[in-house]
UniProtKB/TrEMBL annotation:
<dbReference type="Pfam" id="PF13193">
    <property type="entry name" value="AMP-binding_C"/>
</dbReference>
<feature type="domain" description="AMP-binding enzyme C-terminal">
    <location>
        <begin position="448"/>
        <end position="526"/>
    </location>
</feature>
<dbReference type="InterPro" id="IPR050237">
    <property type="entry name" value="ATP-dep_AMP-bd_enzyme"/>
</dbReference>
<protein>
    <submittedName>
        <fullName>(2,3-dihydroxybenzoyl)adenylate synthase</fullName>
    </submittedName>
</protein>
<dbReference type="InterPro" id="IPR045851">
    <property type="entry name" value="AMP-bd_C_sf"/>
</dbReference>
<feature type="domain" description="AMP-dependent synthetase/ligase">
    <location>
        <begin position="35"/>
        <end position="397"/>
    </location>
</feature>
<dbReference type="InterPro" id="IPR025110">
    <property type="entry name" value="AMP-bd_C"/>
</dbReference>
<dbReference type="Pfam" id="PF00501">
    <property type="entry name" value="AMP-binding"/>
</dbReference>
<dbReference type="InterPro" id="IPR000873">
    <property type="entry name" value="AMP-dep_synth/lig_dom"/>
</dbReference>
Length: 544
């Protein structure tokens, strides 16, 4: 049974996935102990000076789970989880699974707007955060929210600093292990965030069964085993890093996960050399930085066998540099927190490896590429990508209105991505129709930024579009209509400061703003974003 507010797979489809051995009744909360039985004193996690074995990890998960229960965490509770790349993240996530609670994976860059929304939408009863991290006091924010939201009764501070009154310190989340009930494998294990198209981010329920299947399948495809060393370079709460095969896939295979505090070449090259990393995953922006740094670095990267690149369009020119300059295989990954993953394979011919995003990872993934009237198009023709399958959601959490448009009647998810299929069935991602800016791999829903811009005094209308950028792939460009005389408009610096003050995450702030007399409309009367994108990309324009 799935939590109320979720859309389960139809009974006969679920029975089919079980009968075919895809869903095996795995409870994610039980995994650390099973891994410990299998891999014992092998190193599971490396983070800073810490090296944690599988046995230690399982013990810590058991004690942390018991600590959460003692502090009032109950099965079914939603808990917003906001932690950086530390061993704590892994321990806390699995401890919450073990306690039957459902973590909501928030980014550490999220601020008041996002954290409040996630708490409200999920009906969270708790928040787990890093204390003061990169100069921001997450506990103070969570305490403020707890004062406003009656359901939010527990604030946990996993930082090393002094802990505010009313928050539970990390040392308090520790107790003698308890016998805890197992989870229903068909129920939600945790929530991922949607890259979004609407003004407010959506929650993606991921079940124990579907995520266990995803990670096992991708780990097998990637040939992971006890000798594998995975570097978590991107934020660990990103689906790519967490489970593609990422942290969960590597631990399921008896390998070692190395957690990098950030994705800079400085930090990551040193870790690759020291820990003999075999696999890592990055977005194209990070790959570009690594290639630049490589020319100045004598780090030994010879252990690295595969570099996964995904999350945003990879320019062919960049793709072609990976193997010659980094000495490893390039694996393109097209994925989404909603489910579907498509990846290159070790035996791909060089052209496919460079120019396609590979094939879906499961034989049970169903792909449809359709035109504007939902009619399938032939191979080679670009259309919207629709998909359903054993690890792709059937509905966002508590979003019936949006679900009615985001899914077809027969349960296909409308990805909003434009793609074509090669005759051999490989995917080529060609663009998107959804109203999103992909800035260095971060997804920014235009509607969300527009809503905040409209709340700034003096702004009558706002349209946010992507503009191409050499380093980030895209940047955020805002077209604005002033309420008053054109002379009286707020400059970009003030706009950014206002949005920042409103508590919007910094990666969503416009990179450029331009005031216009009015916004162009399509014949149907909607804002013509295509025309605005083209205008934004025109180097001859004057802008703020
Ligand atoms: C072009 N666009 C891509 C690619 C994702 C693995 C890898 C990535 C994600 C991810 C993920 C792309 N080329 N190779 O969850 O497990 C864009 C598409 C897609 C959206 C999803 C994973 N790879 N994209 O990026 O949920 O537009 O997941 O629909 O953050 O990123 O974003 P997200």
């Amino acid at each position: 049974m799935m939590l109320d507010g979720c859309t389960p797979w139809p009974a006969e489809t679920a029975a089919h996935y079980r009968g075919a051995g895809l869903w095996r009744g795995t409870d994610l909360g039980s995994l650390p102990r099973l891994w410990a039985d299998a891999y014992g004193t092998t190193t599971a996690l490396v983070a800073g000076p810490d090296r944690i074995s599988y046995l230690e990890l399982a013990d810590r998960v058991d004690r942390t789970a018991a600590g959460f229960v003692r502090e009032g965490v109950r099965p079914g509770d939603r808990i917003v989880l906001q932690l950086p790349n530390t061993a704590r993240f892994v321990e806390v996530a699995f401890a919450l699974f073990r306690a039957g609670a459902k973590p909501v994976f928030s980014l550490t860059s999220h601020r008041a707007q996002e954290v409040r929304h996630l708490c409200e939408l999920s009906g969270a009863s708790g928040y787990v955060g890093p204390g003061v991290f990169r100069g921001f006091d997450h506990t103070a924010l969570a305490r403020r929210l707890a004062a406003e939201l009656p359901g939010l009764r527990m604030v946990f501070d996993m930082g090393d600093g002094p802990v505010l009154e009313g928050a539970v310190p990390a040392s308090g989340i520790d107790a003698e292990p308890l016998p805890l009930p197992a989870n229903d494998p068909s129920d939600v294990a945790f929530f991922l965030l949607s890259g979004g198209t609407t003004a407010l981010p959506k929650l993606i329920p991921r079940t124990h069964d579907d995520y266990a299947y995803q990670t096992r399948t991708v780990a097998e495809l990637s040939g992971l085993g006890p000798g594998s060393v995975y570097l978590a370079a991107l934020p660990v709460e990103f689906n790519f890093t967490w489970g593609c095969p990422g942290v969960v896939g590597t631990l399921s295979s008896g390998g070692t996960v190395v957690l990098a505090p950030d994705a800079t070449a400085d930090v990551c090259f040193r870790l690759i050399e020291r820990e003999r990393v075999t696999l890592t995953s990055v977005v194209p922006t990070v790959a570009r930085l690594w290639l630049e740094e490589r020319q100045w670095s004598d780090a030994d990267l010879s252990s690295l066998q595969v570099l996964q690149i995904g999350g945003a369009r990879l320019e062919p020119e960049l793709a072609a540099r990976i193997t010659p300059e980094l000495g490893c295989r390039l694996q393109q990954v097209f994925g989404m927190a909603e489910g579907l993953l498509s990846m290159g394979r070790a035996d791909d011919d060089p052209h496919s490896a460079l120019h396609t995003q590979g094939r879906p990872v499961s034989p049970a993934d169903e792909i449809r590429i359709v035109d504007a009237s939902d009619a399938p198009v032939p191979p080679g023709v670009t259309g919207e990508l629709l998909t359903r399958g054993p690890y792709t959601l059937r509905g966002y959490y508590r979003a019936p209105g949006h679900n009615a448009v985001a899914f077809t009647e027969d349960g296909f998810y409308r990805t909003g991505d434009l793609a074509s299929l090669t005759p051999e069935g490989r995917l080529v991602v060609e663009g998107r129709i959804k109203d999103v800016v992909v800035r260095g791999g971060d997804k920014i829903a235009a509607g969300e930024v527009e809503a905040h811009l409209l709340a700034v005094p003096g702004i009558a209308a706002a349209a946010v579009v992507p503009v191409p950028d050499e380093f980030l792939g895209e940047r955020i460009y805002a077209f604005l209509v002033s309420r008053d005389e054109p002379g009286a408009v707020p400059p970009l610096s003030l706009l950014k400061a206002t949005l920042h003050q409103r508590g919007l995450a910094d990666f969503k702030l416009p990179d450029r703003a331009e005031y216009v007399a009015d916004l162009p409309l399509t014949p149907l009367g909607k804002i013509d974003k295509k025309a605005l994108s083209a205008a934004a990309a025109d180097p001859a324009r004057s802008r703020d």
